[in-house]
Amino acid sequence: MRYVLLVLLGVLIVGCRTNESPAGQVDDLKITAQVKSKLASEVGASSVTDISVDSTNGVVTLSGQVESDGDKMKAEEVAKNVPHVVRVVDNLQIDAKPRPASRG
Question: Whole-model pTM?
Answer without folding.
Answer: 0.69
